[in-house]
Design goal:
single chain, about 240 residues, alpha/beta, Glutaredoxin, 2 domains, four-stranded mixed β-sheet, two-stranded antiparallel ribbon, 10 helices, TUSC3 protein
Length: about 240
């Protein structure tokens, strides 16, 4: 009981400083794996160092931070659930222990017993939005988290600038608006939108993959990703040249 109380007290202290507790191998084994535990732990396994070139990790981490902050500053916050993170460069031994070779990965470690298959979040199918993570956590722990996002006015500003630009162009050409009725121009614009939305370039813009991958062990450069769930920027350029 004393050991459990010490562990909970330490986790609460860390959580009061930062919503997501950073873990290395020793901390992970002591606070997440080793009994006794009467709390659930959500762990994000990731690779955030710049040399890893994992843009998806950075995007997933932003959503994870939003979720952890929503829990930390909610009225329902308690010592029954903690959010932690294990970076590959700080806990490579943990990745090896769990036979984990991909990042990011989200796992739930229950208060008793080992994690089951459902305790690993299906990121490939569901995505990593904070709201989806919160729903998964509610299913695994019965802890319901209402996600609060910080206000973001960049979209509103961009829309206002676009409307102002279009309005200004129409005002300058108010005496010559025949171009609005040009069917060929509208058809070309529609084709550009269709090609942009269905091309690999749009996927690259959303996911931000590296141009290619260089194996740090043998120096070999790969221009085609080994998985069907991802791609490198070079792949879309290769397809462009072939087509």
């Amino acid at each position: 009981q004393n050991l459990l109380a010490e562990k909970v007290e330490q986790l609460m202290e860390w959580s009061s400083r930062r919503s997501v507790v950073r873990m290395n191998g020793d901390k992970f084994r002591r606070f997440v794996k080793a009994p006794p535990r009467n709390y659930s732990v959500i762990v994000m396994f990731t690779a955030l160092q710049p040399q890893r070139q994992c843009s998806v990790c950075r995007q997933a981490n932003e959503e994870y931070q939003v979720l952890a902050n929503s829990w930390r500053y909610s009225s329902a916050f308690s010592n029954k659930l903690f959010f932690t993170i294990v970076d590959y460069d700080e806990g490579a031994d943990v990745f090896q222990q769990l036979n984990m070779n991909s990042a990011p990965t989200f796992m739930h470690f229950p208060p008793k017993g080992k994690p089951k298959r459902a305790d690993t979040f299906d990121l490939q199918r569901i995505g990593f939005a904070a709201e989806q993570l919160a729903k998964w956590i509610a299913d695994r722990t019965d802890v319901h988290i209402r996600v609060f996002r910080p206000p973001n006015y960049s979209g509103t500003i961009a829309l206002a600038l676009l409307v102002s630009l279009v309005g200004g162009l129409l005002y300058l050409r108010r005496n010559n608006l025949e171009f609005i009725y040009n069917k060929t121009g509208w058809a070309m614009a529609a084709l550009c939108v269709v090609f942009a939305m269905t091309s690999g370039q749009m996927w690259n813009h959303i996911r931000g993959p590296p141009y290619a991958h260089k194996n740090p062990q043998n120096g070999q450069v790969s221009y085609i990703h080994g998985s069907s769930q991802a791609q490198f920027v070079a792949e879309s350029h290769i397809i462009l040249l072939l087509s």
